[in-house]
Amino acid sequence: MKKLFINTIFIQSNLERLSTILKSPQNLSKWVPDINSVSPKDDYFLISRSSSALNNFEKISVTSQDNSIIYTSTGGRLEY
Question: Whole-angstrom Cα distance, residue 44 to residue 56?
Fold first, then answer.
């Protein structure tokens, strides 16, 4: 799979607080304005976005590995 983009941000916070926030995709709607809802399911989160978004619906799974929180998106027009 070819890597299309990487999102990188710098935040002044302690690692534990940041990890807790990122492991809960329900927080995505606080900084991604086109997200309408985030619904937790058994092993993923169902995201719905505004009609103008590339992915109107997608499934996000969250994994933690070393010092990384990894979001994997499937089910939309663009999987990442």
Answer: 16
